[in-house]
Amino acid sequence: MTGKTGTQLLADKLKKLQVKDFQSIPVVIHENVSVYDAICTMFLEDVGTLFVVDRDAVLVGVLSRKDLLRASIGQQELTSVPVHIIMTRMPNITVCRREDYVMDIAKHLIEKQIDALPVIKDTDKGFEVIGRVTKTNMTKILVSLSENEILLQHHHHHH
Questions:
Q1: What's the chain's Rg over C-alpha atoms?
Q2: Could you identify which of 39, 112, 120, 144 might form a hypothetical disulfide with 149, taking C-beta atoms 3.0 to 4.6 angstroms apart as the criterion?
């Protein structure tokens, strides 16, 4: 019997995991919201990344903790500066889709040193944000793997 090792099984399983199985709910704000309000939202929602949309609910920017920190260190009036002044804009935003593989997303997070990616849906007007994948999601995958949940979901032995 030529069986696969546990490591090979695990690797195969990891490669098949998709964004849709692990994405969480995105926190989205409007581009005209003030930096101050964005900071409050980030604290209240306990997230490290906010996705910025226009009035058509289309993704136009991303705000990280660093962006907000940089703005608050500057001499700007936080309640009057809109987030679109300080956000990272399209096309400099890495996005992903529900069908993408988690391992590819993990590589993006590491290479670009970012905490989260928006999960988007393509629309006529642009990208609509439908979820997020974060470093925390990656940690949850590790935990569920170690508890063998994922491994046992599709346990088919072919002899």
A1: 19
A2: 144
Contact partners, residue 33, CB within 8 Å, separation at least 6 = 41, 82, 83
Closest by CA to 50, choosing from 97, 83, 92, is 83
Q: 12: closest CA among 114, 158, 137, 113? A: 158
**Other CB atoms within 10 Å distance of the CB of residue 75:** 4
What is the pTM assigned to this prediction? 0.84
State both tokens at 54.
């226009």
Hey, what amino acid is at 154? H
d(CA 118, CA 134): 9
Q: DSSP letter for 34, please.
A: B
Q: What is the pLDDT of residues 90-102, one digit of tens each?
A: 888 999 999 999 9
Both tokens of 96, joined, read 């992903």
Check pLDDT > 90 for residue 56: yes
The DSSP result for 60-93, as a single string, is EEEEEHHHHHHHHHTT--TTTSBGGGTSEETTS-
Pick from 67, 59, 60, 15: nearest CA to 42: 67
Angle between helices 102-111 and 6-16 (to 10 degrees): 80
pLDDT at 141: 85
